[in-house]
Amino acid sequence: MQQSQQPARAASTTDTKNLSESHAHGAARTFLAMEVTPNHTQAVSGWAAMEPSGKVVPFAFKRRENGVDDVTIKVHYCGMCHTDLHFINNDWGITMYPVVPGHEITGVVTRVGANVSGFRPGDRVGVGCIAASCLDCDHCRRSEENYCDKAALTYNGIFWDGSVTYGGYSNMLVAHKRFLVRIPDALPLDAAAPLLCAGITVYSPMKQHGMLLGEPGRRLGVVGLGGLGHVAVKFGKAFGLKVTVISTSPAKEREARESLKADDFVLSTDERQMQAMGRSLDYVIDTVSAQHSLGPILELLKVNGKLVLVAAPDKPVELPSFPLIFGKRTVSGSMTGGMKETQEMMDLCGEHGITADIELVSTDGINDALARLARNDVRYRFVVDVAGTGSSL
């Protein structure tokens, strides 16, 4: 019998942290969640971290039955985000073990609930960072579910029924219809997977700050050429911006210019190059997750220019006041995007042929890929071939 999922209460980040004070507490609450959710009867095979070892192991668990508002998905691919490493290693102190990572999920619908009208079996779909929200606050009504105080993450979150959410390192998933997007036929499911996190993370602020209006002569700077940065370059070029890549690595110049067709490249450690680019950019999107100073980057902006931070360094960044004051510049932050915006982004990617540059790995290679990801040794996103012939699931 199908059960309706009511928007009773999804946990906030604070709630999740309180639930995860230790490995023991997290495990106890996981057991409790399983006890109070008897409709979790579907056997699933996946990969989970059981402790902060930096590795995952095969893990069998159960998902809820497909409710009237739910869609069941056979997972084909799941992108590997650096956030997965943070949760696996409990870097933020909020991990509830066992944790099944993965929030860049693509696959095919196998079942839909009675109240679902927008999807049907066989549809190509994706699930990103969010599994639930309150559905009733101002943010949810504006389709900004990612900013809802009661948003639940796709993994390591608390769903409406009190269960701990498990992510896409698994062979199937049950998602509420609100938190599902359609993947255009023009996009391959593997290379589209990272768009559900890396793609929307850069698309949302670029749209918000007018970077994608196609105004002639507008110039965008992208700090860092990794999983997020390379997609930001692709968006900028697709919408007619002059794109400059700003990097600490001289080896990235050839990639930026030849592979991604960036218009300029600036080595941020070269003071002469940085000065030559002073007051030349309208926008900068900063994708670097390491601690760094924003002062030199701000000096690249024109008067009234905008700098957007989308990464989360583990230590505070340096923000000197003079480049702000004397340039009337703005610094803001942004995290992922709402569901309406995510579908819009995916549709535009279909129209423009935008995908992530990926390295496909089998499920047997997840731990090797995680080790390489920790060293930033990837061009530019690992994607797990969950349903592939080499899969051990």
What do these coordinates show?
This is cinnamyl-alcohol dehydrogenase. InterPro entries: ADH-like_C, ADH-like_N, ADH_Zn_CS, CAD-like, ER, GroES-like_sf, NAD(P)-bd_dom_sf. Its EC number is 1.1.1.195. The two termini are 28 Å apart. It contains 13 helices and 17 strands. The model is unreliable at 1-35 (pLDDT under 50). The radius of gyration is 21 Å and the shape is globular. The strands form 4 sheets. Strands 3, 4, 5, 8, 9, 16 and 17 form a 7-stranded mixed beta sheet that branches. Strands 12-11-10-13-14-15 form a 6-stranded parallel beta sheet. Strands 1-2 form a two-stranded antiparallel sheet. It folds into 2 domains: 40-197 and 338-385, Alpha-Beta Complex (Quinone Oxidoreductase, Chain A, domain 1); 200-333, NAD(P)-binding Rossmann-like Domain (Rossmann fold). It is α/β, with parallel strands linked by helices and 393 residues long.
Provide a compact summary of the structure.
The protein has 393 residues and is α/β, with parallel strands linked by helices.
How would you state the average pLDDT, rounded? Answer: 90
Number of helices: 13
In this structure, how is the largest beta sheet organized? Answer: 7 strands, mixed
Shape: globular
Poorly predicted spans: 1-35
Subunit structure: Homodimer.
Pathway: Aromatic compound metabolism; phenylpropanoid biosynthesis
GO molecular function: cinnamyl-alcohol dehydrogenase activity; zinc ion binding
Protein name: cinnamyl-alcohol dehydrogenase
